[in-house]
Design a protein that fits this description.
heterodimer, B: 11 helices
Chain lengths: ~260, ~280
């Protein structure tokens, strides 16, 4: 309970400092919408020249793209500070203050920033899903809806865990940003159905960097009923729990190795 | 006259050298992205009406993969200046004041630095990467058969087009940088610039895929010369006359945008408030 209160106090402070730069947020939001619009236009132009991509129609691919934005945006809202830890804060010796306070460092990093930009991403994702859903003819089952929601929420947990684990390595190597970037960029693979990838990449995207597990497989469950929704939900929650536990463990181990760079 | 910019050219070249480890990591990231694109295009051709042997908008799947690989290398080698960032920092820290009172042009400083970056990148990464890509793609039959004298003419025009593209990119970056005088949102402006260029230059997909009306317009904009045209010159999809026209169009755009940048700067500079510095 004390932590919940503490979290909201910290977030309020971060929001107040953000409001100083309103115009910046508007420019950032605009550029974000514009870049998604361009990627969507690109997919649209490509599909104009072929009947369907690996059996998926335009509306179905739009659904994939929109759904992939949900777990990514949820993660974006809560854990943006880890990018700074990985790229800059450890290297600049900027983490010392967190080690002097009587709350876990990992909690403090979460409480440092709340990124309202994530809502923009979420709204765009939901809008895209809604528009595409009108053009789909599928039998919607309760299980399919459940697995989509679980995929979005626990997918965000998996992304955050990967981020925490990679950022933690900065305590040892001083800078782990690029590594985090490589791992994170694999999320763009999950914007398309797994069917377009060769077997090896498909396996990688399900078992190692499981972006496919919580994005492509749930969407496939809705579109074609290809997988058992309950088994899949169970798998996603299980993987999320394991990834989160591992991430916290890696963070705690690496944290002990922290030496201030003192500059 | 130009001698005073030589230190900036040198600094740009050395700066790039110092960050070669970062550049290698970026190369790793880029390889993952290219792989994703290649899979996507293979799926597109597999799903097309004519199957794998189809030509979509004049590109066979072999040419498309060559196009994706070569544009990626081209962008990697040609575009790595931090002009928008540096102007943004100069404004935020107030160091822009130092440049305004010195007898060199603020614009010239960035152009020289960018050329320095381009020089190092071309020598250190461009030559090995292009050679490896051309030899590999060529021996897999992904490029047309090379007849040597024509190929060298195309190669020469490609290098010229690359130089123009780099200058044009710096001009556009500079314009976006000067816009930081008005908003101070360097991050947003920079990503807007990157998106605009990657979409309209044909990096995301060749402009031939755009709907006809839009394509006609985009082909005349400066961006086509920043990625698609240089690569199509290198791949010999354009004949010599067409290649020369493309380079000339890009050069003309540099002049026009350079004039625009000058006007914009003289307006923006009145806005600047130097806080200490």
């Amino acid at each position: 309970m004390r932590y919940v209160h503490l979290y909201f106090t910290c977030i309020k402070r971060s929001m107040i400092s953000r409001l100083e730069y309103k115009k910046d947020t508007i420019v950032a939001l605009f550029s974000f919408f514009f870049s998604n619009l361009c990627s969507l236009a690109a997919v649209y132009f490509i599909l104009q020249s072929i009947p369907a991509l690996a059996g998926y129609s335009l509306a179905e691919l739009g659904f994939f793209y929109g759904f992939s934005m949900l777990p990514i945006s949820l993660d974006h809202l809560f854990s943006d500070e880890f990018w700074l830890v990985a790229y800059r804060r450890v290297k600049d010796g900027d983490m010392d203050m967190h080690f002097l306070r009587p709350v876990p460092v990992i909690f403090q990093v979460f409480a440092e920033t709340f990124q309202p930009e994530g809502f923009g991403e979420m709204i765009l994702g939901v809008a895209l899903i809604t528009v595409c859903a009108f053009h789909l003819t599928v039998t919607v089952t309760f299980g399919a809806i459940a697995v989509l929601i679980i995929g979005a929420v626990f997918g965000a947990v998996i992304i955050t865990s990967l981020k925490v684990a990679m950022a933690a390595l900065a305590f040892i190597f001083k800078r782990s940003g690029p590594l985090l970037q490589i791992i994170y960029n694999f999320s763009s693979y999950a914007k398309y159905p797994l069917a377009i990838y060769p077997f090896l990449i498909r396996t990688l995207l399900i078992f190692v960097l499981p972006f496919g597990l919580f994005i492509s497989l749930p969407v496939d469950t809705l579109l074609t009923g290809a997988h058992d929704p309950w088994l899949l939900s169970f798998a996603i929650i299980g993987v999320a729990a394991v990834f989160f536990a591992l991430a916290v463990r890696i963070w705690t181990l690496c944290e002990r190795r922290y030496e201030s760079t003192g500059s | 006259m130009l001698k005073k910019y030589k230190p900036f050219l040198r600094a740009g070249a050395i700066d790039t050298m110092a960050y070669r480890f970062n550049i290698l990591i970026w190369a790793g990231i880029t390889v993952c992205e290219v792989a994703c694109l290649v899979f996507l295009w293979l799926a597109v051709y597999r799903s097309s009406e004519g199957g794998m042997d189809a030509a979509i908008h004049g590109f066979s799947y072999r040419e498309m993969i060559a196009y994706v690989v070569l544009t990626t290398i081209f962008n990697f080698v040609t575009y790595n200046n931090d002009t928008v960032w540096n102007i943004n920092t100069d404004i935020k820290k107030g160091t822009v004041g130092n440049y305004l009172i010195k007898p060199i042009s603020y614009r010239g400083k960035f152009a020289a630095t960018s050329l320095g970056n381009l020089l190092t990148m071309t020598l250190m990464f461009g030559i090995p990467f292009y050679t490896a890509a051309l030899v590999t793609l060529g021996s897999l039959g992904f490029l047309p058969d090379l007849s040597f004298p024509t190929f060298f003419a195309h190669l020469g025009l490609f290098l010229l087009a690359g130089l123009c593209a780099s200058l044009l990119n710096d001009t556009i970056s500079y314009i976006f940088g000067v816009l930081c005088f008005y908003t101070s949102s360097g991050w947003g402006l920079n990503s807007l610039k990157v998106t605009l260029i990657s979409f309209l230059s044909g990096t995301l997909l060749p402009l031939a895929f755009f709907p006809a009306g839009l394509r006609e317009i985009v082909n005349r904009l400066p961006f086509a010369g920043m990625s698609q045209n240089p690569i199509l010159i290198l791949m010999m999809k354009y004949d010599l006359a067409q290649s020369i026209r493309c380079v000339a169009l890009t050069a003309a755009w540099i002049v026009v945008l350079e004039l625009f940048a000058k006007l914009l700067f003289s307006h923006a500079v009145r806005k600047v408030t130097v806080q200490g510095g």
